[in-house]
Amino acid sequence: MDSVYSDIDSNSCDFFPHTDDEDSRGSLRSASPASSPDPDPEPVQQLQKKRRRGRGRSDATVQVVKKNRRVKANDRERNRMHNLNDALDELRGVLPAFPDETKLTKIETLRFAHNYIWALSETIRIADLQAGKTGDAPLLLSSACIAEAPSPGSDACSWSSSGSSSSSSPVYSASSPGSPGAPEDYSYLHQDALFGFRSLVPGIY
DNA sequence: TAGGCCATCTGGTCCT
DNA sequence: AGGACCAGATGGCCTA
């Protein structure tokens, strides 16, 4: 029952010095439009005392049910966000690391991953183009590059700037796996993703 | 101290 | 009905 709140406390979120959820919401979000307009929230115990002599299913009972539902929903939401963060951490682990080991923020991770995928796609595309000219079979090589995408520190598939420099135009819709909101804003970032991680961060926004 | 990032709560909406 | 998803609000922490 109190595990949720103890969890909250352990996460340094001192939301609830007391446990009534409507009450806490009111105290926390006095200016929030989402907060109920209830002028003087009462502790649940007082409500229960006051309304216990009513009919079988009192308002207090309804409130307790609501509260339990809210607590469960909060718990699910917390777990959901934790899962999301775990996935984000996995994504960080796959992406090449920055030399200074600064942890990418969420938005940086997503944008860098986007650029990284784009860069890999460009690498494959260019390699395939060159293979078409020379008759080599670099398609296998490029596939291997994808399979062993450069982990932090490994340059099993180091991309050279010479090849990728020819892809100055952001062939976005063609090579981008996703559909970016504003492709024109990203065109130069792809260059950064190819040529320098460090320069990516200032330009990431 | 302001601004950025983050975790959490919350109510609404959609889906099963 | 209950769960998942989403966006807004809020407060804490950290850094320039």
**Low-confidence runs of at least 5 consecutive residues:** 1-55, 138-205
Largest sheet: none
- Rg from C-alpha positions? 27 Å
List the secondary-structure elements in sequence, H or E: HHHHHHHHHH
Number of strands: 0
How would you describe the overall organization of this protein?
This protein is elongated. It has 205 residues and is an all-alpha fold. Helix 4 packs parallel to helix 5, helix 5 packs antiparallel against helix 6 and helix 5 crosses helix 9. 60% of the residues lie in helices and 0% in strands. It has ten helices and no strands. The N terminus and C terminus are likely disordered. The longest helix is centred in the middle third of the chain and has 36 residues. The structure holds a DNA duplex (16 and 16 nucleotides).
Keywords:
205 residues, 10 helices, 60% helix, elongated, DNA-binding
Quick structural gist:
The chain is elongated.
